[in-house]
Structure formats: structure tokens, C-alpha cells
Predict the structure.
Amino acid sequence: MKSMIANLIDEEIFNSHFILESDAEFMQRICNHIFHEMSYLKKLAPSEYSQEIIEEIEDQVLEVFKTKTYGYLNLQHYRKVHGPKMTSVG
């Protein structure tokens, strides 16, 4: 599960449609994406466990996010340091 989350974070961290989002907004977007992808769990797991599943996914997203952005002030700082470099010509 963590490798799937890490891959999704890597794919989405520089998504230009969401470049101004906060850390919390980014993590919520990742969680929502995972919930959507794993909607089949609603059919497999009894409904009384759905909240536990959601909390587990949120915890894992937070853990992977913290690992990915360790040493940076926030998501914006990470994006600024690692984002596409713009160079001027002339």
C-alpha cells in the first residue's frame, strides 16, 4: 500500500492544476484518489470497518508524505526546491 501511495504522491506532487494547495489539501486529494480507486473495498469489507479503513489510509498517506517532504518547511518549499527549473534566455 505504501508503495502505491508513494507512486501517487510522486505523480501528483508537481501537478500544475493544484500548485497552490496546502499540505492538508494535497494529502486530502491523495486520500480521495485512493478512496476512489479502492471503492471496491465497500463491497469486500463490512461497513462497520469503513471508518477504520479510511483512518488507516489517511495515516499511511501522512506517513509517506512526511517521509517524502522531510527536511522541507512544507509542500510549497519542497515544490520550490525540486520543481521544474525555469531559465531565462537572453
